[in-house]
Automatic annotation (TrEMBL), chains A, B:
The protein's name: Lrp/AsnC family transcriptional regulator
Species classification: Bacteria, Pseudomonadati, Bacteroidota, Sphingobacteriia, Sphingobacteriales
Superkingdom of this protein's organism: Bacteria
A family per Pfam: HTH_24
InterPro entries, A to Z: ArsR-like_HTH, AsnC-type_HTH_dom, Dimeric_a/b-barrel, Tscrpt_reg_AsnC-like, Tscrpt_reg_AsnC/Lrp_C, WH-like_DNA-bd_sf, WH_DNA-bd_sf
Length: 147, 147
DNA sequence: TCTGAAAGAGTCTGACA
DNA sequence: TGTCAGACTCTTTCAGA
């Protein structure tokens, strides 16, 4: 499937604000709502749009501590990596999980109430999962962009 | 503002799928669409919900190379940090920007077509912004969770 | 805080250029 | 690919419990 400039602009708009109506998008692209609707349907069906999510303010939700946790595990076999992945994404604290190449095997985005909860997550949940080689935490002070 | 269990469940559902209708959410929580509507409005007005975005598949968009770029800058004054932040979020390649504490000053989530485009971004855009102390790139092989 | 009815708005389909 | 009209569905408001 080939995307034209209109498709790309639709994706650009929706990645910033998924609540735009087809009519509003159409007005910006000089079209009516119908072709916008059809194009979005096509983009969804072909997997270009994977879904729509609400962006929450974790500060207000008493989960103001957001961290990136860089994890290196001991067992690098396919089974070992898959095992860690499946078990770690089951935790509510894990907002995102990326398998990576390079120094770390996984980067996790974590939300916890405070530093104490974060440490509890580390000690009682993360560390027990599978044998780890290293864990490095970086705390987020400000989210400046998100799309 | 105090959130009850119903509010939290609404947030949980919408953070995974923002396309659920008020009626569908109501059915899961044993209520009608009206109270769900009112609660969501309240959560939006009070900033618990910051917005709604489409999740795109960057693989398919020929921006399959997603990386976390860890940046340490030379000038740690408030102005220096703010300056870098404002200029870096203007780049299309920058999907997300987090100001962090610890080893790095910023973590960027970057999307590029391939390794060559990524290097071009680094050399022609990122490096020129402000004097940097270190830049470390970690490439994403798989996104296993995102909410 | 909730239900249920009703108006307003958006989505989605189909005929046609 | 696109416009337009109409059916359908969801959102939103309001009266009442």
């Amino acid at each position: 499937m080939v995307l034209d400039e209109t498709d790309l602009q639709i994706l650009r708009l929706l990645s910033k604000n998924a609540r735009l109506t087809n009519k509003e998008i159409g007005e910006r692209l000089n079209k009516t709502a119908t072709p916008i609707f059809k194009r979005i349907k096509r983009l969804e069906d072909h997997g270009y749009i994977r879904g729509y999510v609400a962006v929450l303010d974790y500060d207000k939700l008493d989960r103001g501590l957001v961290a990136f946790t860089h994890v290196q595990i001991k067992d690098h076999s396919r089974v070992g990596l898959q095992d860690f992945l499946e078990r770690v994404i089951a935790f509510d604290e894990v907002l995102e999980c990326y398998q990576t190449s390079g120094e770390f095997d996984f980067i996790l985005r974590i939300a916890a109430r405070d530093i104490k909860s974060y440490q509890e997550f580390m000690i009682n949940k993360l560390i027990d999962l599978v044998p780890l080689t290293s864990v490095k935490s970086t705390f987020v002070m400000r989210e400046a962009k998100k799309e």
